[in-house]
Design brief:
Blueprint lengths: L2 H9 L6 E6 L7 H15 L12 E5 L1 H11 L6 H12 L18 H15 L6 H10 L2 H9 L5 E8 L5 E7 L9 E2 L2 E5 L4 H7 L9 E5 L2 E6 L10 H5 L2 E7 L21 H12 L4 H17 L2 H6 L6 E5 L5 H8 L5 H10 L7 H4 L5 H17 L1 H9 L2
Parallel strand pairs: 1-2, 1-9, 2-3, 4-6, 9-10
Antiparallel strand pairs: 3-4, 3-8, 5-6, 7-8
Helix pairs in contact: 2-4, 2-16, 3-4, 5-14, 6-8, 13-16
Length: 398
Amino acid sequence: MTLATIVNAGLVRPERPLQALVLMGGGARTAYQVGVLRALAAMWRLQPGVPPPFPFQILVGTSAGALNVTTLAGAATQGLAAFDQLADFWTRLRSGDVYRLETSAWARWSRIMAATHLWRHVRQRGAILDNMPLVDTLHRAVSLPGIEASLHQGVLDSVAVTASSYSSGVHWTFCHTARDHADRAWNRPGRRAEFQPLSIEHLMASSAIPMLFPSTPLWVDGHREYFGDGSMRQTSPLSPAIHLGARRILAIGVGQPERAGLIQADAGASPPSVGHIAGHAMASVFHDTLQADVEQAQRLTQTLQQLPREVAAVLPYRSVDVMALQPTQSLDALAQRHAGSLPTAVRHALDGLGARRGGGALASYLLFEPGFVQDLMALGEQDAYARKAELMAFLTTS
C-alpha cells in the first residue's frame, strides 16, 4: 500500500463509517471464505441488541473471491440470508459447473497423448480448460439486478472486482456504485480503477486463472484489452477498499500457512515433475500479498493514532482498522486427500503431468467437488470461531 493511497483515502469523507469485506482469489480454495462468512453470520445473529442487517457496505473481490462478493451483493437486501445463499451455492457446485476438459479414450491411458491433447487445447483456445460452463453458472448464481437494488437502496455503498490486463500489464479495479462517478477513479503506477456497472464478463475476466482458463476481453479507456486473473500483479489488495472510503476492513485470504510440511523425504533425489512446477507457479500467481498489506496498513494506523489529536486533525490522512483471516492448515495437503474426486479427464491429465505427486497444489485450484468444498468450509468455520471474540469486537466497535 502506498502513501498516495492513504492520502487519497483521507480526502474521501463518507457520510457514515463504512465496513469493507475483501476476499482474495484462489479458485476452489475460496470455499474457505464461505465457511468463515457462514460462521460470521451465525455469530452476528446472536449479538445482543444488534439488528441483523448486512454487515458490510463495501465489497471487494479478486478471482473466485470476486464471484463470492458479487453473489453476496446480489442478495444483500436480504440481510444475513445472503451468506446462507452463498454457502448453498458452494454446496451444490461441481467442477463441471466451472470448466470442462474433453479428451479421447486414448489420451487417458497415454501420458504422451494426454500432453499432446493438452497442447492442442492451449493452441486452439489459449488455455488448457474450457470455462464456458462458468458463464451459465454465474448467470444462475449472481443477480445483477440484485446488485443494483442493493446499491440503490443503500444496503451497499460499492462493489468492486479486480482483473489483470494481459494487453497493458495494468491491474484494474472495476467499481460499481449507485452513481458511478468517473472523477472517483484512481490511477497509480500499475494500478487503475474505472467506475462502471459490473457484468458477468468482469467476473469471467477476474477469475481467468492463467494458462488454465482463457482470457476475457473488456473495454477500458475506450478500447478493448484482454484480461486474466486479478490475483496476478496484485500488489496492494486493500487499496480498492480504502479508496472507496472504508474505515474498517475484514480481509479473508486463502494463502498457505506453511508449504514446507509437504516436502517429501526423497524430494531432492529427483527433479520436480511438470505438474509440481505448475503447482509452484500457480502458488506464485496466487502468492498472497494480503498479510504484507495488512501489516503496512496497521503500522500507518498506529502511527496516526500516536500523533497529537490537533496534528492528526489537519493531516490529509485517516486511520483504517484491518483484520485478516487465513487458513490455519495447509490447503495443498487437504487437496491431495481429495484429488481422486476430480473429473476423470482432469485427473488423467494431472497424472500425466505428475501433478498429483506434487503435493496437490495445482489440484487445489480445480477441486470444485463436495468433499474438498465441505472440508474447506468446515476449516473456515473452525478458524472463525477460534477468533470469535476478536472478530465480533472488531465488527461491532463503533
